[in-house]
Specification:
Blueprint (H helix, E strand, L loop, with lengths): L37 E6 L4 H12 L16 E8 L5 H14 L2 E4 L8 H15 L5 E5 L3 E3 L1 H9 L9 E4 L35 E5 H10 L9 H12 L3 E4 L11 H6 L5 E3 L2 H11 L13
Parallel strand pairs: 1-2, 1-4, 2-3, 6-8
Antiparallel strand pairs: 4-7, 5-9, 6-7
Helix pairs in contact: 3-5, 3-6
């Protein structure tokens, strides 16, 4: 790896990270009796706009996951993840009420901040490993991402999973050698990650983690320090450390993708970064005839 010493990417002999498996809202009914086979894991926050976005997600691309009375009973399900330590009692109660209606809320006992997103995803993956042990795959999706579910499942099904059971799948970072930022939202101190470049990694707005990789990650988070850059940490650093295969496909949108509404409507895109208006526009077009193009190229 360019500019990176390989021995950094080794598990510690003793535990260096504590993953809190405490959940004020456990979401105990999300995974039951060997289901789901695919779980969409969506990190969320407690803000009025985020609550509206969750409702729109339930009503649009994730609507087929829900049955009567918002019960999720199919092989594909969704859960929204939060941390509780910076929530007021009123905010936590609001999430309890939302959980009572939709049954798709999980709240862990950690500080839910942007800089803590990598840790939040480590807790999320650990929850999936503990409570959804039969999943074939977990799909991490950001709130501002629209998912063409049929196309995503079709592409994932074509991956050589027998040969490579431990994998992550998404769109690769544009840079051949992703540079480490030291300041700003994605800033990582040199004392935490001493190199100037990350290993190749997958963009964090949407990626698939195989069931075996979920278990492997959950078992080993405690033996590696959490690097506070979610996608670089999980799909780059931990993938290298644990020898997890990375599959890439151009149908996952990134920040440079243009005409996302048109492309997802024509089944060219698996995921797209959207605002509320685009989410509704895509759904209103897609819902009469949801499907996918069987001729789409394999990875």
């Amino acid at each position: 790896m360019y500019g990176v010493k390989r021995d950094f990417f080794e598990l510690h002999a003793s535990k260096v990270t504590y993953i809190r498996r405490e959940f004020p809202i456990l979401g105990e009914n999300i995974c039951r009796e060997g289901l789901p086979k695919f779980l969409f894991a969506v990190p969320s926050v407690v803000k009025p706009q985020a609550a509206q976005d969750r409702l729109e997600i339930r009503q649009t691309w994730a609507s087929s996951f829900y049955g009567s009375n918002w019960l999720q009973a199919d092989g594909i399900r969704i859960a929204f993840f939060f941390g509780s330590e910076n929530l007021s009692s009123g905010e936590l109660e609001s999430l309890r009420n939302e959980s009572g209606v939709y049954g798709d809320i999980v709240v862990g006992a950690f500080n839910d901040t942007y800089v803590n997103l990598a840790y939040k995803m480590a807790v999320t993956i650990s929850w999936v490993a503990d409570h959804c042990s039969s999943v074939d795959a977990m799909v991490k999706v950001d709130m501002d991402t629209y998912v063409n579910v049929g196309l995503l499942l079709n592409l994932t099904d074509k991956l050589p999973t027998q040969e490579y059971p431990n994998f992550v799948f998404g769109t690769i970072h544009n840079d051949a050698h992703p540079k480490v930022l030291r300041t700003g939202h994605w800033g990582v101190p040199k004392s935490v990650y001493p190199f100037d470049f990350y290993p190749k990694y997958i963009y964090g707005h949407s990626y698939v983690v195989s069931g075996p990789a979920v278990k492997l990650l959950a078992e080993n988070f405690q033996y590696f320090p959490v690097i506070p850059n979610e996608d670089a940490f999980l799909t780059g650093i931990m993938a290298v450390t644990l020898n997890i295969t990375r599959f890439y496909h151009s149908s996952f949108a990134n920040l440079l993708t243009v005409d996302v509404v048109d492309k997802i409507e024509r089944n060219i895109l698996t995921t797209a970064l959207v605002d509320s208006e685009k989410r509704r526009t895509i759904w209103n077009f897609m819902k009469p005839s949801i499907g996918f193009d069987d001729s789409f190229e394999d990875v």
